[in-house]
Amino acid sequence: MSLQNKIRPYVLPAAIVLGVLLHRWIGILNFLTPYLIFSILLLTFCAADIRHLRPSKLEGWIVLFQLAASTGGYAAIRLLTGNELLAEGLLIGVLCPVAASVSVVACALGANRQTVVSYTMSDNLLVAFAAPIVFSFVGQRQSMPFLESFTMIFMHIASVLAVPFLLAWLLQKCWPSANRRIARYKGVAFYLWAAALLLTLGKTIDYIFLEGSGNGKNILYLGILSLLMCVVQFAVGKRIGKHYGDTAAGGQMLAQKNSAMGIWMANMYLLPLAAVYVAFHSIWQNLYNSWQLWQYPRQQEKKRTDFQTTANKIT
Length: 315
Fold this sequence. Notes:
Mean pLDDT: 86
Helix content: over 70%
Number of domains: 1
Distance between the termini: 27 Å
Largest sheet: none
Low-confidence stretches: none
Number of strands: 0
Radius of gyration: 20 Å
């Protein structure tokens, strides 16, 4: 096992621990996050063949579940418990778009890069259209015109994705040799993402501490519900992905969320405390990703050993 593979599983837990310990001071460095995300996405997009990105059936089913589970879950919790806060927490947690850097973990787990990059773009655009419709029936800004709401959400999404995507497209079209040189360093994206994750988690954990004051019971319920739904989303995503031959892509595409975007939408359109659901989901998803990254090289080694054993028996 390479040194890189040995280190990877411990990067995310380290980011979480440091985020907890240093959350009060993380804000000082938070201005670096957009630059890190830009670099991650540029490396990711350069390593993908943008000209051949096509939506797939796998993406379609993931999106369908995302929309059905967010709106259906909201209605079910509100009907069964009458708790608007929990209902809005689940709504925003599931409706929240996939993390822009989802391909970093997904590809480290063997997912198809083309599929994940295509879904990153399509899901974020879908949420930009679907969320304003949902928020016209749910939340604190139901009277906001669709176009105004769409523009606000779209600009938040486009500001992150559009520039590195267009730059990678131009490089692949006009300067392919430069694109190939950049793509050779795609592995660096994981460590840039770890740094961005430290800053994001620190800010997220600080948010939980701030909002948790005097809201202990609600915080507990939101944390438990987010854990249950995190498990459901990974399980369903992997099940759908397995059907289309890409288990890792399915799980990450459905369950790895853009927590910063989710927290912003909750504060803008819903009860602000509902954002705590998204904050907790960010912690659960990264704990599980750490476990997956720890398991993956061992699983691959076992497969190679089993294959060699079978081959030796045949010969």
